[in-house]
Specification:
about 450 residues, two-stranded antiparallel ribbon, single chain, 2 domains, elongated
Length: about 450
């Protein structure tokens, strides 16, 4: 009896030690935490990328809709019996820019689709590998459980009593306890792998669905782009028919201007003075760009007027600066000897007209093309150019210039003017061959064709 009591005490001690070994072993405490967190983080990253991809697709659709609108405007302009070559060319330039943007956006979207496809392939490969790992570990656990079940048929007491020594009994009991601990760790690992697989399979399913939609939308936009490029080619072919008429009209205007200049005399002196004035006017733009007082009020006023005026304004909110439009000289390179040289888009031109001239008679009211702030008036270019004029800043680096006005300038610097508000009267001050308005648009320091903003 005394020997069996000692054996029982020994057995209890061994069980206590084994329990301490199991409970103090930290190997499996965070086994499943990090891999699962990584799987969820990967899913969140893929969802963020898919959201960015959808945003790019929305931008592509918006640009595509804008292109359709611009093509419709160009078609309508060509269908008009009074279609003007310069106006149509300006519209087609906008169309070309939209086509370029769409082409670039499509390329970026396809690149994103391919990058996402590569990520999803990697996720799919992970799923395959982890599935194989899961099956192997489940089989191993099943083998352990079967072995433990078979061994559990033998009493621990019988193991101790049948052992050759107490040390041998301790080793056998410890082995059984360690196997139980390993099985628990294996089961935790299996649960972790299953949870990872659940997250990754959801990620793969969502990602593939989003990719299918993105590929379908990209294909649709590509097909639309091809159609619109064909439409653009037709419009360009039709526009070519207007070119001859535009060139004839320009030649007539320049012949008349040169004739008036010769009749006036002092050609060389006036050309030199006009060139200095043109350079001074360009330099003045740089100083005026910094002046932005009261632009917020001007923008609010422009929005209200745009709602009131509707179709009389262009898409960007501009109107013609005279109630009746009668163009006498277009913007751009010219043979008119009095115009100064200018370099536009890297090309040097010996004579360049930096605006559009229009004439409706001396004293015709000159109207603000759009709401803005007057940043210069009177004779801003004196002594290089004695002409009277008004400069209006519309924000965003866009200014409109009104030149050769009468000395009765009614707008003053710092004044907020609304669209259509009278700022002066048509005159012939400065280097002028007769009463007319020189209307120019300066965008970020460059003299651009006013027809790009006019209706």
């Amino acid at each position: 009896m005394r020997r069996r009591s000692r054996l029982a005490v020994t057995l209890v001690a061994l069980l206590t030690v084994g329990s301490m070994i199991v409970s103090s072993d930290p190997r499996n405490q965070a086994l499943a935490a990090d891999p699962i967190a990584e799987a969820r983080a990967e899913r969140a990253a893929i969802q963020a990328e898919l959201a960015a991809q959808r945003e790019r697709l929305d931008q592509l659709r918006a640009t595509s809709a804008s292109l359709s609108h611009q093509l419709d405007l160009a078609e309508a302009e060509l269908a008009d019996v009074t279609a003007e070559y310069e106006r149509v060319v300006g519209l087609l330039q906008l169309v070309h820019r939209a086509v370029y943007r769409i082409t670039r956006q499509l390329a970026e979207l396809r690149a994103r689709i391919e990058r996402m496809n590569d990520r999803l392939i990697a996720v799919s490969q992970d799923i395959m590998e982890q599935t194989e790992e899961l099956l192997a570990r489940e089989a191993l656990l099943q083998d352990h459980l079967r072995s433990a079940y078979q061994q559990s048929q033998i009493s621990l007491l019988e193991v101790i009593l049948s052992a050759e020594s107490l040390d041998a009994a301790t080793n056998q009991v410890g082995y059984l306890l360690t196997m139980s601990d390993q099985d628990k760790a294996l089961a935790d690992e299996i649960r972790s792998i299953r949870e990872q697989l659940t997250v990754k399979r959801e990620t793969l399913r969502e990602g593939r669905a989003a990719l299918r939609e993105a590929r379908r939308a990209a294909s649709e936009q590509q097909a639309l782009l091809v159609e619109r490029q064909e439409q653009l080619k037709l419009l360009e072919d039709q526009t070519a028919k207007l070119k001859a008429e535009a060139e004839r009209k320009r030649a007539e205007q320049e012949t008349a201007l040169n004739g008036a200049l010769v009749a006036k005399g002092n050609v060389a002196e006036e050309i030199e003075a006009n060139e200095r004035a043109f350079q001074q006017k360009t330099a003045l733009v740089g100083r005026l760009v910094a002046e932005r007082e009261a632009l917020e009020e001007a923008r609010r006023l422009a929005e209200e007027e745009a709602r009131r005026n509707g179709s009389r304004l262009s898409a960007s909110g501009f109107r013609w600066p005279e109630a009746v439009t009668r163009v006498t000289q277009e913007w751009g390179p010219t043979t008119f000897a009095m115009e100064p040289p200018y370099t536009y888009q890297g090309v040097y031109y010996p004579h360049f007209h930096g605006g559009i001239d229009m004439a409706n008679g001396c004293g015709t009211p000159i109207l603000a093309a759009k709401a803005g702030v007057v940043v210069a008036s009177g004779q801003p270019l004196w002594p290089y150019d004695p002409g009277y004029g008004v400069v209006i800043d519309h924000g965003g680096g866009i200014q409109t210039w009104y030149w050769h006005l009468t000395t009765q300038v009614v707008a003053s610097p710092g004044q907020v003017v609304g669209t259509g508000q009278v700022v002066g009267y048509e005159g012939t001050t400065g280097f002028s061959t007769g009463c007319h308005l020189h209307f120019a648009t300066n965008i970020l320091g460059i003299w651009e064709n006013p027809r790009l903003v006019l209706p």
